[in-house]
Design a protein that fits this description.
Elements: H1 2-22, H2 27-40, H3 48-66, H4 71-87, H5 91-104, H6 107-111, E1 126-130, H7 140-144, E2 150-151, E3 166-167, H8 177-181, E4 187-191, H9 192-205
Antiparallel strand pairs: 1-4, 2-3
Helix pairs in contact: 1-2, 2-3, 2-5, 3-4, 3-5, 4-5
The structure holds iron/sulfur cluster (3 copies).
């Protein structure tokens, strides 16, 4: 009975991990949450395929999230997890490998190599930008930004010649507070890749 109870607790823990990972939309973020929670809890370190595999997989997943990954990282994640699935001593290691392998099947997973995260959950792959035509220069975003990443001057009725509000990307921590307060749909979340490509085209034309 005590053994059964222990098994149940272990099962619940793995289920909880999956539930937490499933709260994310991005398959790479789901994988990171799963492996992080697994490493922090149930992973006991008794067998090499699971312990080494989980740590190594995490390193590769982080590279995808940070925008530093290559095709080789995805190949390695697949290889490691396939090995974990077969050679791990217990179901916990196998379940972890299975979950991550399922995520790698989504095209959004490999899409991170080219700098896209369609769910906008990986901050290295997104940027907040201000659409000048929509901006009324109310200054609400300026007040909301705790990182001093927005430049611009609030509109005063008796003055003219304002500069458009702008987000200084180097300072922006992607917290998303500005977009919440803008009532004029003047702040947009875009793919970081989209901006880089536009800049490159602009540079070629000039
Ligand atoms: S597969 Fe099981 S026994 Fe092996 S390290 Fe992972 S949790 Fe421990
Ligand atoms: S909150 Fe919106 S409209 Fe107001 S200054 Fe910022 S971007 Fe412009
Ligand atoms: S996302 Fe956060 S840090 Fe970036 S400009 Fe908006 S409020 Fe500032």
């Amino acid at each position: 009975m005590i053994q059964e109870e222990k098994e149940e607790i272990k099962q619940v823990k793995m289920k909880d991990i999956q539930a937490k990972a499933d709260e994310k939309k991005c398959p790479v973020q789901k994988s990171l949450v799963f492996v992080d929670e697994f490493l922090a809890g149930p992973m006991c370190g008794r067998c090499f395929p699971c312990s080494f595999g989980s740590y190594e997989t995490r390193i590769r997943i982080k590279r995808l999230i940070d925008g530093n990954a290559t095709d080789e990282d995805i190949e390695t994640i697949n290889k490691i997890c396939s090995h974990m699935l077969v050679a791990s001593f217990c179901k916990k290691g196998k379940d972890t490998a299975k979950y991550i392998l399922e995520q790698t099947d989504y095209k959004e997973f490999s899409g991170h190599i080219s700098g896209t995260c369609p769910s906008s959950e990986c901050v290295a792959h997104i940027k907040y930008v201000i659409i000048p035509e929509n901006c009324t220069m109310c200054g609400d975003c300026l007040d909301a930004c705790k990182d001093n990443a927005i430049i611009g001057e609030k509109k005063k009725p008796y003055l003219t010649g304002y500069l458009t509000f702008e987000i200084v990307q180097k300072r922006c921590t992607k917290c998303g507070e500005c977009i919440k307060v803008c009532k004029y749909e003047a702040i947009k979340l875009v793919s970081a890749k989209e901006i880089t490509e536009k800049k490159a085209v602009g540079a070629q034309r000039s």
